[in-house]
Amino acid sequence: MKKIFLTLLLTFTLATPSWSAPIYTFPISGCKTTYGKYHHDYPASDIKAKFGCAFVAPINGVVEDVSTKDRWSGKTNLGQHRGGLSVSIIGEDGVRYYGSHLSKIEPGIAPGVVVVSGQKLGEVGRTGSARGIPKPHLHFGISYPTMPGDWEIRRGVIAPWPFLDAWKAGKDLSPAKAVAKAKVKAGK
Questions:
Q1: Within 10 A of 118 (CB to CB), how many other CB atoms are there?
Q2: Backbone angles phi, psi at 114, to 5 degrees
Q3: Is residue 21 one of the residues assigned to a domain?
Q4: E strand map for 83-173
Q5: Contact 63, 86 (CB under 8 A)
Q6: How many structural domains comprise the chain?
Q7: pTM for this entry
Q8: 127: Cβ–Cβ under 8 A, 6 or more apart, which residues?
Q9: Which residues, 6+ apart, have CB-to-CB distance to 104 below 8 Å?
Q10: Which of 118, 116, 77, 82 is nearest to 102 (CA)?
Q11: For 125-152, what is the mean pLDDT?
Q12: What's the CATH number where 66 sits?
């Protein structure tokens, strides 16, 4: 009996992805991308890619927030609606990752759903305030978790580009320390 239990335990352990060490993935898969080091008036990155390119989970985590309806209007330009279709996840590293301006959200992606690094969450598009922009892109923000719907924080509190550079090169560079510093600085 003990031998069967150990065999089953070993089989399960080898077949189950480890959540002990984060493995980061560049958030757009299978497409050529470009992005800059700077963003408007807050830290984030607009990752330019072809319309419909896959937006993937940058780390194992749990879906926190999903916006399935594009409510943005140029007349009101409300901050909470600027992202259009969007998904945010809380990674196993305790960091929130946010992608917006999506053209589509994958079926089954909803708050509370567990996702794995590299899993498709949606597709690059032009929703929200990106509607009039000729080139589609993924707005990518990294922040600390707050209350769901807190659009000012989820859009980004640290510059993502150093992490994007590392992930694109296949390196595991964690933004957790930088996010913790930003949280302390904000008095949260």
A1: 17
A2: -80, 130
A3: no
A4: 85-91, 96-105, 114-115, 120-124, 137-143
A5: no
A6: 1
A7: 0.87
A8: 70, 72, 83, 84, 85, 100, 101, 102, 103
A9: 52, 85, 122, 123, 125
A10: 82
A11: 91
A12: 2.70.70.10
Cβ–Cβ under 8 Å, residues 92 and 19: yes
Query: Is the separation of the CB atoms in 152 and 79 below 8 Å?
Result: yes
In a domain, 4, yes or no: no
Q: Rounded to an integer, what is the distance from CA 119 to the centroid of its chain?
A: 11
- As beta bridge partners, residue 47 has 138
3 pLDDT above the threshold of 70: no
Q: Kindly report the average pLDDT of the chain as a whole number.
A: 88
Residue 165 has pLDDT above 80, yes or no: yes
Q: Does residue 188 form part of some domain?
A: no
47: confidence class by pLDDT, cuts 50, 70, 90: very high
Judged by DSSP in three states, 181 sits in helix
Give backbone dihedrals phi and psi of 162, rounded to 5 degrees, phi first. -65, -35
Specify the length of the chain in residues: 188
- Domain of residue 47: give its range: 42-166
pLDDT tens figures, 55-76: 999 999 999 999 999 998 989 8
Q: Which helix (H) or strand (E) holds 62?
A: strand 61-67
**Is residue 31 one of the residues assigned to a domain?**
no
CB atoms within 10 A of CB 33: 18
CA 187 to chain centre: 24
Amino acid at 152: E
